[in-house]
Amino acid sequence: MPLRISVGLFVVFFSLSGCGQDYSLSPPADSEQITVTVKVPKELKAKTMKVMYRSATCKRISQGPSGQRLESDGHHGFDVQLKRQGQSDLYQVKLPKDGGGACRWHLANVTFGVDYADPSRFGESVTTGGGGGVVVVFDHKNSPRGGTGIEVKGDLTIKKDYYPWIIESFIGRYEKDISLLGESRTYYLNYQALQAKDVYFEPILHSGFLVHSVGPKVKEKGNYAVFTYPDGTVEAIARAQPDFRKLQAIRLAAEHKK
């Protein structure tokens, strides 16, 4: 049975096999709208947004390890491209909080962010890495990445610093990518915003402060990645990623000298 949702300027199609009822998303005309806006630096691009709606009415049925019947909330996910606002650096999408339909869908969470528009500017073999992601949960359920995140009241405004991070890896196969390093220990910031009507994300890219890491070529005890910071400092240490606070200090010291 085809599933359809028409929201603003986009139409998304789903399919669900074996359904015996109407699973369509049909937002009412007066549904409250949630607006997500991303301010995109010129070297970056807006990632495709992943949207998830849930339903407590239309359950998903599965089977447990002992053959028992398991029920969970129904859910449907789809992708949406954020639309540029005129000639500005703002990209936006509006989503109905109430998905409507017989299943009484509600907006559960969105996953979005930014990454490099042209990773090849860092070299022919460089690919897009991670970082620059945001997950916002609008209900009490876990996000696709686990947990509900930091709870915020009202609308959500996110302004965070990011640094370009080139990662070279050798074990398994050679890879070189350009990632966005932020303050989070993961590549995604996670929030729960139950009352939000507006979500605004402004990544502040400090493109002049690049950090470079080179992984070990042999997996042996004591072999660590080597981190080279923009001030020339080199560290070989058991660390999963560069020291964000060190980068902040380097940048602030450089800006103070100007």
Tag the structure with descriptive keywords.
8-stranded mixed sheet, disordered N terminus, single chain, 20 strands, 258 residues, 5% helix, mainly beta, 10-stranded mixed sheet
Gyration radius (Cα, Å) is: 21 Å
- Class inferred from helices and paired strands: mainly beta
* Beta-strand percentage range: over 45%
Largest sheet: 10 strands, mixed
Describe, in plain words, how this protein is organized in 3D.
This protein has 258 residues and is mainly beta. The protein has one domain (32-257). Helices cover 5% and strands 49% of the residues. The chain has one helix at residues 244-257; strands spanning 2-7, 10-15, 33-39, 44-46, 49-63, 69-80, 83-84, 90-96, 98-100, 105-116, 127-128, 133-137, 150-151, 156-169, 175-181, 188-192, 198-205, 211-214, 226-228, 234-236. The strands form three sheets. Strands 3, 7, 8, 11, 14, 15, 17, 18, 19 and 20 form a ten-stranded mixed β-sheet that branches. Strands 4, 5, 6, 9, 10, 12, 13 and 16 form an eight-stranded mixed β-sheet that branches. β19 (226-228) and β20 form a beta hairpin. The chain is globular and about 60 Å long. The termini are far apart. 31% of the residues are buried.
How would you briefly describe this protein structure?
Helix content is 5%, strand content 49%.
Tell me the layout of helices and strands.
Elements: E1 2-7, E2 10-15, E3 33-39, E4 44-46, E5 49-63, E6 69-80, E7 83-84, E8 90-96, E9 98-100, E10 105-116, E11 127-128, E12 133-137, E13 150-151, E14 156-169, E15 175-181, E16 188-192, E17 198-205, E18 211-214, E19 226-228, E20 234-236, H1 244-257
Parallel strand pairs: 3-17, 11-15, 12-16, 13-16, 14-17, 14-18
Antiparallel strand pairs: 1-2, 3-8, 4-10, 5-6, 5-10, 7-8, 9-10, 10-12, 14-15, 18-19, 19-20
